[in-house]
Amino acid sequence: VVLPPPCDSEIFCHGDLLRTIQTAKLFDDDKHFVDMKLKSNPDIVLSSFNNLTHGAPNMTVPPSRLREFLSAHFEEPGKEFLSWSPPDWHDKPQFLDGIADADLRSWAEKLHHLWKSLGRKISEDVSAHPEQYSLIFTPHPVIVPGGRFRELYYWDSYWVINGLLLSEMTDTARGMIQNFLYLVNRYGFIPNGGRVYYERRSQPPFLSLMVESYYQTTKDREFVRTALPALEKEYLFWMQNRSVMVEVDGRKHVLNHYDVQVGQPRPESFTDDLELAEGLTEDAAERLWTELKAGAESGWDFSSRWFVDGQGQNSGSLRDTRTSQLLPTDLNALLCRNERTLAHFYRTLGDETAAARFDKALSARLEAVEAVLWNEERGVWLDYSLVTNTSRPAFYPSNLAPLWAVCYSQDSMGQKALHYLQASGGVGFANGVPTSLVGSGQQWDYPNAWPPLQHMLIQGLSSLPSDEAKKLGFDLAQSWIRTNWLAYIKYDAMFEKYDVNGDGKPGGGGEYEVQLGFGWTNGVALQLLAQYGDRLTSNSIPDGSLYSTV
Ligand SMILES: OC[C@H]1O[C@H](O[C@H]2O[C@H](CO)[C@@H](O)[C@H](O)[C@H]2O)[C@H](O)[C@@H](O)[C@@H]1O
Fold first, then answer.
1. pTM above the 0.95 mark?
2. Rounded distance from Cα 129 to ligand 1 centre (Å)
3. Partner residues linked to 391 by β-bridges
4. Phi and psi (nearest 5°) for 81?
5. Ligand 1 binding pocket includes 396 (Cβ within 6 Å)
6. ipTM of this complex > 0.90?
7. Is there an atom of ligand 1 within 6 Å of 496 CB?
8. Is 496 annotated as catalytic?
9. Residue 548 has what pLDDT?
10. CA Rg value for the chain
């Protein structure tokens, strides 16, 4: 089977030009080239490239000639944006008043200011001449993550939007959601990010939850009414293209996985993917590249969580990435929340028939999650391997995602999951909960701690009725805020991820340098400061009495 390339562009997604420039390693980061703008029509650029390589021995062109070619035909990245400051930004949104600690309050004000530097408006020229850009046009301005991430990202935007809503920037938040609705209508789903090289894979589906956050703040039913057809379309995409049937104890269940049937190396990490596949057959290399893209679709790119070795076990290395062979707890918890939210939206608008359809989907999901992902012996939800037809026992914060999504039918499961977490070895760190307990060198592994995972865990714990769970939720919030704050004091920056060791240290590992900015980090910090602002302090360390490690 010949798989499609990441997109049709013969410059940004596949072909000799892309391969020649990327393998010449003219830039530190492969994303640099694919973010450059063409100065003229792609046909002109391609024909000039053909002239350059024509007659060159083995098509090798000296780096100096390639650089000349690039400066003749391309502009530096970032030229597609207009300077833009969100017009709905204003001083002193109300939530700041609820932050008791003076240092944290003044820091929160600075974080609130950061929306101005992360705001981007796309030039109309991108809409008039899309063939000259890798950037995908969206009609409304966006808040970007920051650093090398110059464009919108799908799941990051959920925490950004929640932060914007606290900052009372409802117009900016609505515009970002409208961009996603526009993308669903154009592609049938939401691409990983706002570049053509991301257009054949998605990211964790948070759009319905974005609309829910917006509705909770504004009570704008009309907005929900206009959004619903796209929300339903996106849900269908996941059910039609990312679902599998699994049989457990003689009963069949439908659950979801990440799966990207797109070949060739990721253009933005071209040489990483090429080098990783060295020595593999053509088929094995194509297979590996689909699985890496599925890893990117999960948002966890990359992690030992997706490694499946020759025996089907959870060991190996990046080359053993088999994302599509696993049924992830967090994706299924998220879809469970999507189903509940969609039922609620339809009911709010008086469409009982459609609401009942989603009630039914939710019941089927709950049954499937409990039959396949819930592990009674360990008292928690675990990813399920389609290779071995068994649960994967390793600790990840995502094991607790059904708690966050309230995707369980018996209260006792919540309490058991709390005890699992306390004994997991994941909450014994002063600076946040690590992504796993395995130091694979990948960025979604130990010792890195990521903002969205902290937030989901804390929300899940705070939703439980027990004081013990609420206290652990608060302690984790206190540790996380302290880590972010200490790193801010030291580096004058917010990072995309942090290290659970040391005092306020950015994370590392993976295929690019840690990035500053940073959209979801700021969104999560603002949410925790709003939720626990009366109790959080800039200098306290949780007592650790609830922590126990294995
Ligand atoms: O260029 C490598 C990869 O970078 C992105 O992934 C990471 O950053 C995203 C933006 O903050 C975030 O959503 C993701 O969870 C991170 O792992 C990108 O999303 C990948 O597709 C890309 O290959």
1. yes
2. 26
3. 384
4. -110, 145
5. no
6. yes
7. yes
8. yes
9. 36
10. 23
